[in-house]
Design a protein that fits this description.
six-stranded parallel sheet, Rossmann fold, 15 strands, 32% helix, Dihydrodipicolinate Reductase, domain 2, alpha/beta, homotetramer, 9 helices
Amino acid sequence: MINVGVIGYGYWGPNLVRNFAETDGTRLAAVCDARAERLALVEKRYPGTKTFRSWQEMVQDPSIDLVAVSTPVSTHFDMGMAALRAGKHLLVEKPMAMNVDQCARMVDEAARRNRVLMVDHTFVYTPAVRKMHELVSDGSLGDIYYYDSVRINLGLFQHDVNVIWDLAVHDLAIMDFVMPERPVAVSATGISHVPGGNENIGYLTMFFNSKMIAHVHVNWLAPVKVRSTLLGGSRKMVVYDDLEPSEKIKIYDRGITVNPDTSADKVYKLMVGYRSGDMWAPRLDTAEALGVEIRHLVDCIEHGTRPITGGEAGMEVVRILENGTRSMKEQGQPIELAAAGKVTA
Amino acid sequence: MINVGVIGYGYWGPNLVRNFAETDGTRLAAVCDARAERLALVEKRYPGTKTFRSWQEMVQDPSIDLVAVSTPVSTHFDMGMAALRAGKHLLVEKPMAMNVDQCARMVDEAARRNRVLMVDHTFVYTPAVRKMHELVSDGSLGDIYYYDSVRINLGLFQHDVNVIWDLAVHDLAIMDFVMPERPVAVSATGISHVPGGNENIGYLTMFFNSKMIAHVHVNWLAPVKVRSTLLGGSRKMVVYDDLEPSEKIKIYDRGITVNPDTSADKVYKLMVGYRSGDMWAPRLDTAEALGVEIRHLVDCIEHGTRPITGGEAGMEVVRILENGTRSMKEQGQPIELAAAGKVTA
Amino acid sequence: MINVGVIGYGYWGPNLVRNFAETDGTRLAAVCDARAERLALVEKRYPGTKTFRSWQEMVQDPSIDLVAVSTPVSTHFDMGMAALRAGKHLLVEKPMAMNVDQCARMVDEAARRNRVLMVDHTFVYTPAVRKMHELVSDGSLGDIYYYDSVRINLGLFQHDVNVIWDLAVHDLAIMDFVMPERPVAVSATGISHVPGGNENIGYLTMFFNSKMIAHVHVNWLAPVKVRSTLLGGSRKMVVYDDLEPSEKIKIYDRGITVNPDTSADKVYKLMVGYRSGDMWAPRLDTAEALGVEIRHLVDCIEHGTRPITGGEAGMEVVRILENGTRSMKEQGQPIELAAAGKVTA
Amino acid sequence: MINVGVIGYGYWGPNLVRNFAETDGTRLAAVCDARAERLALVEKRYPGTKTFRSWQEMVQDPSIDLVAVSTPVSTHFDMGMAALRAGKHLLVEKPMAMNVDQCARMVDEAARRNRVLMVDHTFVYTPAVRKMHELVSDGSLGDIYYYDSVRINLGLFQHDVNVIWDLAVHDLAIMDFVMPERPVAVSATGISHVPGGNENIGYLTMFFNSKMIAHVHVNWLAPVKVRSTLLGGSRKMVVYDDLEPSEKIKIYDRGITVNPDTSADKVYKLMVGYRSGDMWAPRLDTAEALGVEIRHLVDCIEHGTRPITGGEAGMEVVRILENGTRSMKEQGQPIELAAAGKVTA
């Protein structure tokens, strides 16, 4: 049984707390929040759970095996490092930290102390994203051509990070899991409509060594909510609409056939053939992603294995966010990513 | 009565021909196409219309007052200049020509000879786009924050131009009419999936002197057709979906209120207020855009006035396409547009 | 403070229990369920709440002021009557009881003992239905022409009632609140696809003294979920789609104008004019319906007033269900309803 | 080559005329319309075509082989009989005639004279309906459980027939082709909102000897346009949305499994199992239905075979319309259809 202490009982924290309380293999041992009224809620709903106002105290509690950090991103590094140094396993909200350097130090610390470090890239554990991973991995889609995502709504303007850290992070986490390669360069554009504020609209293009491209459009100031992703391949193409109650994943047998063996005198037009076939929406599991994720975390701790969304994945996501933000300040100036090369499980 | 000769009876030409034949004030005098079987069709449907295999001959026909050019973009300059030099008025398909220099020479020629030069930016004459123009002009939307458009489908791969010349041109024409300013810089990214082919996916960001941004996403290799535009303002926001049979324009009373007078000790979060009100879909006219456009063209010729979509508008659109394509070759490198400054009617 | 005892902790009971626990003015005093494992859940989530295996015992508990019955419809009469006879106020799930006679006896019992009797017609307390009520009441829609509803999905086949008792009951409750009159006759058709089972598809037409019609289509065996209602009026028409996350209510300025003063020689066609104007989606509250309902219940108990969804409304709904089921057995044979005449608040 | 004369150049006539002019095997010989301005249009678009003001004259023209009648339903019988008596083949708009008696006499006349009589049930020749027919015929759907259709919009109020003759006729024609049996009884309800007018809202339930049901909802006074059909089977279920630009047909692997061998002590609930699997949208042809239909007509005339939508199909559709209208006057009173028994090709 893994005893868990959760730091942060704000927007997402209650979901972590509920899942740790209900999942076999974990026990909700403690919750920490600086705000007394939040702890009062915890005490009402989870009598018998220890509560802390100070995270520094909680991470020293010897009865705790795993610390889960669900606080603003600017606090992740300090809290996460303290937990690791205290010998705890660590689950940290995404984005993992404020920059690649912080991430690298957390990865090192976990490795040195032989602790499991997982980043809460929740979408990776949804049935829809797992299905996309499967379709890429088993070759159903053929060569991957592009990933294109729109993630917009009238959203809460964050004050410590811009919109790509808040919303594009989901797509970067999904891409890290689904795409066959990691990007090697990024070009981003964006704008802030609040004086002195962070960018509230962002467009992020990623380049790869192969003939792929990825693009993410995020916006806190849109009149409608959209969560829509296209994943184009040479054999099939996927539309993933996360707002659909069922049929989140639709697979289209559509595309082009390029004739590679064309003699010089044939005109270009003849080289491309068009294919428009059936569409298919596979039935998806209905398991809650966070429950799947926590069972995977338990498994990693028990067997000493590396999580799908470990510290390295978290670091690669932050690498794109960090460089994307730099590119954004320079109106799309492309920036090379010191690519780490994808480590396939 | 204006006698019209149309060059090109391919995909779009038949629409021009039909509208010139039916609109009061114009008479379909001649059609030119290099392909005999296309001319045979014309003769069957429009008996009594002259037909030409050679456009050089047709533009010299003294009975013709106006030449309409509906051929691949690489031919627009030669045909258009010949028509103007022969003293004809000119309607030319979009994009106007292959580069800004060609456009400028066509504009000069028309001015010198006192002929009307119109570019067929058809969308500008649709009820939906005219409504957006009205909402911007009368202040209903407040300050404009952004224009964002997605225009994708499984489309015919063009062989003389890339996807932004084929699809983004529609948005640039709409923006030239609707937006209160013209862009001053562009950053574009894209990719070709056909060896030796033009880019079939493109992302185009445009920057302005004011706090606005514009983005257009075009794709010939998408599994689904999307024609969706967001126009965000400080007072209201518009969703324009051209595939909706009715309710193409939806106006949302949603947005943020930024408190400009904030004392230093208030936290940033408090500066932004959120507003989520009604949605409203105004009834739109059902007039065919091309008919409206041709009546406007007749009016310009009769009164010697400048068309809404004249040579200058066509040139500004080509300026963005030309520089966007350059930026695309350099992975998003931003390029300044030698901005011409918007001439308001 | 009203002390509440809830009978039945199955599908809907937990929502009642949570709302009684959280609403000001009520206190969750006791929960009853025949199944030990359900009571164990209650004890874990609501420590300090009394639990009962026997409802007969619970309704005799002197500390309880209000009994809420959330069990299969065939048990409502016995439990409800026992609670009223024990001097409790009563909230009973819909449909209120198995037939009009049972309903009438419950209404009488409550009146004699001066207790509040409310039927849990939850939809009546949703922001969308309240908006429809407002639009009818204030004349925005003009004369009401029709109510048409589709409520289908792949649903659990109930074993004590047919599909109209399970699904059409929602529409009958909404109509009782929204429509300006009560129906005077019913014709229903339906079918069972399970040997010996109740009808799993049903179509219910209701007739009125005025020129109105209402129709409800319900189905437990549909491949997709639909919750869509049309409310047509002479001035405006409403589309209510309960599955829309926002914009549940859309108001269309569409319809016909009938020219009443037509001389004999005018052809019929000229009598009807068509109107196609704007659409408008008003912003709706986001309050949870059950919370609104329970605050209304508290108010009725405290002030001795009659609930919007009192015993009489519940009885009229059951009258239609009972006679509709009879008509269904006779392939649509119309049946007059001994109409009670609408009592307007 | 079959020489065709078309009576009626109103709303639908131009589609017939264009298709007869373009289809191999037919030649547009003549068009008849009482209105001179309509004939002027024909002469402009189809020079060389004979025109008639009098249909009586046209049906006597010896150069004509086939007469197509596209006029109000009340005229079909007189025109159709005259054409048959003059020895012509006949294509008649739907509904075939005003009552079953007229239909029967037309069928007899065609049989006696050995002429082909086809009713223009256009939907039967669409790719979507042909796919549904295929799915029923090859057993993909299993036993058919129900057909349910909604066909509503703000439509032109007809003056000689009510809304079921105008709109439900499409569904009855589709059902006659797709369903494995013909209905044996009908119950219909409806209302007119125009003084002295025909019913503008109609609900039609049809009963079968097997455990099937069919229902059609039609409305001329709806704020939105809907064309949506459900076809439920024991193995699969279809949603057919005719307004979808692509994916008109979606096939759901959803339903129930009824356990037939249940011992007496098992509760009813256990007898029903639920199945929720994949959805699949097959690619459909894009051929124009009317072209397919006319090629079929040519084939029937050339080979002396019976059309899929012959006079008998037309008569069975009218039988339901005629009895449905009677039922409607009696608030849903069920009426038995003197069922003709389906003749399978």
